[in-house]
Structure prediction request, 319 residues.
Amino acid sequence: MDCFADIIGQERVLGVLRQALSTGRMSHAYLFSGPPGVGKMTTALAWARTIIMSSDPQGEFYWREGIHPDFLLIEKAPKKTLIGIEQINREMEPWLALKPYRASHRVVVIGQAHLMSLPAANALLKTLEEPPAHAVIILTAEDQRVLETILSRCQLVRFAPVREADIRSLLEQRGIAANQARQIARLSQGSIAAAVQWAEEGVFDQIIPAARDRIRALQTGTDLEVFRCAEDMEKKPLLRIGLYTAMLRDILVLQNTGQPDLLILEDNRDYYGQLKSLDAAKSMACLQKIDELSRQFRGPANPLLLSINISYLLRDALK
Prediction:
């Protein structure tokens, strides 16, 4: 059974992991690093499953039921902003100290390790310095946003954005029309997670029409419209920001090149032509600030305050 069968667009990563398994040269700790939505967690779980099943092929039932005794998943608790120290020193460390029950290794996956509190990260560091012989620890994080001391004790496995063609093919297999699949693939910017969510939410039926209305309203410049935009953005900030910035980019591209084939959302071409011209330099500066602020959503932050600040930048870019 190939546990990697559902991994899309990460052939180089899978090659590294398969070679480690075939040669028996597995690391005690891995850091799967890359942009959001490209398959880091999916691959981490598949790698954990592969390691465990290689010595416990009869344990497949326990894995499918989520009760395999030699696997542990650590994630940020609901309603918490960070992974706490108690999850490391009270949950992971005692569990990892036990000998494997069925497999040859005990495997722990720590999702979004960049969200560990400093005490939690320091506690993990102690385990990484002297890991049990039977332990494999797999961390996922966005673009190496972990302590340098932790990074130095892990094998770094870099994940790249997924190719547009791979995302388009996946969407078409799920029944999305070719024209829409192409535009969603462009919009997702290499994130499979974003592409699937756009498709499931009916981006062309509801979300894009609503975004068009929002952009028109922001061009009026009232604070009320800014706050309405922020309230909507707060619900799914990274997706909403991705859409607004893609549309703003499209407006600038069409305004400055007149080439509709360069648009991300080509179905918006007529709509873009109805909007007033933008100050390209000012809009580009706003886009850069929006990109910097949006990264804060991936850590502990006040989502409403960030959404308000970004909505004001959108208004400035559109005026």
About this structure: The chain has a mean pLDDT of 92.
